[in-house]
Amino acid sequence: MGYLPQLMYGALITLGVALSAVLFGAAFGLLGAMAKLSASRPLRAVAEAYTIVVRGTPDLIIILIVFFGGTIALTRLFGRTVEVSEFGAGVASLAFVFGAYATEIFRGAIRAVPVGQIEAARALSLPAPILFLRIVLPQAWRVALPAFGNQSIILLKQTSLISVVGLEELMRSASMAAGATREPFKWYLAAACLYLVMTGLSTILLRLAERRANLGYERR
Amino acid sequence: MLDFSLMLEVLPKLWQGVGMTGRLSLLILLLAFVIAVPLAFARNARAPLLNVPAQAYILFFRGTPALIQVFLVYYGAGQFVWVRTSFAWAVLRDPFWCLIIALGLNGAAYSGELFAGAMRNVPAGLVEAARALGLSWYSTMRTVVLPLAIRSALPAYSNEIVLTIKATSLASTITILDLTGMARLEVARTYAPYEVFLAAGLIYLAIILVLTRGLRVLERRWTVTR
């Protein structure tokens, strides 16, 4: 069991990648949703293209473009060789993918906020940022949470794809343990169990968060 | 910025990979469907002997990454001597069949849960009415539950088809030359990751867009609207 600590460390990296990507991805999603709901036609078109392209392309291709393409782009930009960190490229590509799904989730959730609420806030002459932060977001969040949580769990599993470009997360640690001990089944199964624990705990956390977000809406 | 002539140059090579991606997708969808239907019945069964294993199966395959499932089958199976000496080794040695088995089992879990949900959503009153008219369990399923369940599951199932096609890109991690595998090979030859991966991404996008349009037409035709 000598490789177990390495596997646990890999699991920590996996969690780090997933959390960072969810955070940045949520920001992408929020921007995307605002662009899709905006009055500007070019903004809407850009957001539409973003979601169609990302949802129609395998995540692995996007990871490969960001990782290998990113190195070339940054090298050209700075005029010298720039190594893209695996962690950074991993987070960037997963956040980019996550953002497309989050765009659709947030768009639907924002549209679910009753128009009367927004009209009332306007009538009270709340400034637009306050209107968005205090009126729209808290109500949209409740609607968005289940789908957002599910997508985050999907992202947690997709982090395994980063192992392909060499980041030493859980999947990669399992591959290294498998290669060194010549017991691939055992180590991949151990890693699978760790993933199962992480997705299971995330699901439980999500249910708790959903319950909390619905506190004021419970049916008597 | 982008070298378009290079993109055109690698297109024929990438096209060879498209055939492999298509074959993989079809066989995976077929295997997944064949397992998913009985799995959905087991998942909805009242007997714990059927219901618990089905739920465990779905939990495992939906709770772990597809990539690890692919590696478990492709690298993991070879760890056991009894597998290597059995007749199954002819299949498990081949990355092509390993990917189909791994992603087929994976897809079955997602589709199974989907079908089970669709069958549960058929109004209980319809089933009771069918039983009251003296229809057997088999006839109730064939003439009442399944036609309704299939229609309501269809939009989500088309989504499954798209996800399966995207998932076949994992083939490139176990040496299969599918579209992604061909692209990685061409990147190694041309050192032009942008052009080649973008071209491959556009091919996937085109396939998926055409497919989703087609599936939407089918959905509309099969859904009864007033």
What is the secondary structure topology, with strand pairs?
The complex is a heterodimer of chains A (220) and B (226).
Chain A: H1 4-37, H2 41-55, H3 59-78, H4 86-111, H5 115-123, H6 128-158, H7 170-181, H8 184-213
Helix pairs in contact in A: 1-2, 1-4, 1-7, 1-8, 2-4, 3-4, 4-6, 5-6, 6-8, 7-8
Chain B: H1 4-44, H2 48-63, H3 66-76, H4 81-84, H5 89-92, H6 95-120, H7 124-132, H8 137-167, H9 179-190, H10 193-222
Family (chain B): Belongs to the binding-protein-dependent transport system permease family. HisMQ subfamily.
Domain ABC transmembrane type-1 (chain B): 18-215
InterPro entries (chain B): AA_ABC_transptr_permease_3TM, ArtM/GltK/GlnP/TcyL/YhdX-like, MetI-like, MetI-like_sf
Describe the structure.
The complex is a heterodimer of chains A (220) and B (226). Chain A has 220 residues and is mostly helical. Chain A has a single domain (4-214), classed as Orthogonal Bundle (MetI-like fold). Chain A has 8 helices and no strands. Chain A has helices spanning 4-37, 41-55, 59-78, 86-111, 115-123, 128-158, 170-181, 184-213. Chain A is flat, with a radius of gyration of 20 Å. The model of chain A has no long low-confidence stretch (mean pLDDT 91). Chain B has one domain: MetI-like (MetI-like fold), CATH 1.10.3720. Chain B has 10 helices and no strands. Chain B starts with a helix and ends with a helix. The radius of gyration of chain B is 21 Å and the shape is flat. Chain B has 226 residues and is an all-alpha fold. In chain B, helix 1 packs antiparallel against helix 9 (179-190), helix 2 (48-63) packs across helix 6 (95-120) and helix 8 (137-167) packs antiparallel against helix 10. The model of chain B has no long low-confidence stretch (mean pLDDT 92). The A-B interface holds A 52-53, 55-62, 64-65, 68-69, 72-73, 157-161, 163-164, 171, 174-175, 178, 182-186, 188-189, 191-192, 195-196, 199-200 and B 59-60, 63-69, 71-72, 75-80, 162, 166-170, 172-173, 180, 183-184, 187, 193-194, 197-198, 200-201, 204-205, 208-209.
